[in-house]
Amino acid sequence: MKTVALAAGLLVLAPAALADGPTLEPALAETLKRFTEAFNSYDAKAVASFWAEDGTLISPVGEVGIGRDAVANVYQHDVDKIVKGSRSSFQPQLVRKLKGGLVLLDLTHEMQNFQMPDGTVGTMKLHVVILAQEKGGSWHWLDARPYAFLKPPPPPAR
Q1: Full-model pTM
Q2: Based on the number of CB atoms within 10 Å of its own CB, is 117 exposed (0-12), middle (13-18) or buried (19 or more)?
Q3: For the chain, which residues make up each domain, given as ranges?
């Protein structure tokens, strides 16, 4: 009887497990949606409002912001240099629940219409790791680390 119940439960859960990426709990999914909207509005104060008061951001170019005002400055510098004109989406790849209301998020960050380092415009894909905390019914980013993967080296000559 327990085996049948377990099998039935797995069948119900299987479509969610096979969906694109992990499932976020509804409040965190809503927070990520609102963050994406703020990010695409290029409003540095709105973006920084998603961070905890002492949260940190290290940008892809290595600029460090500690605290909301500094996070806003780092984001604004990224807008001015590389983000303006692009449209971002964030797709969860891994969600790891930790103790204390903490969640570690691994996200794919795709930017359409991005100004590439070589001057062309195209799609830039980054990876973002965010340590988020739920406190008082809302989610805030404690730490965020967006980065790009290096291209693998060519195979050795033979």
Answers
A1: 0.82
A2: exposed
A3: 21-147
Fold of 21-147: Nuclear Transport Factor 2; Chain: A, (3.10.450)
Around Cβ 74, how many Cβ atoms within 10 Å?
Answer: 22
- Euclidean distance between CA atoms 139 and 25, whole angstroms: 11
Backbone angles phi, psi at 91, to 5 degrees: -120, 120
Which residues, 6+ apart, have CB-to-CB distance to 153 below 8 Å?
Answer: none
Local confidence pLDDT in tens for the 158 residues of the chain: 433 333 333 333 333 333 456 889 999 999 999 999 999 999 999 999 999 999 999 999 899 999 999 999 999 999 998 899 999 999 999 999 999 999 999 999 999 999 888 888 999 999 999 999 999 889 999 999 999 998 888 899 88
Identity of the residue numbered 120: T
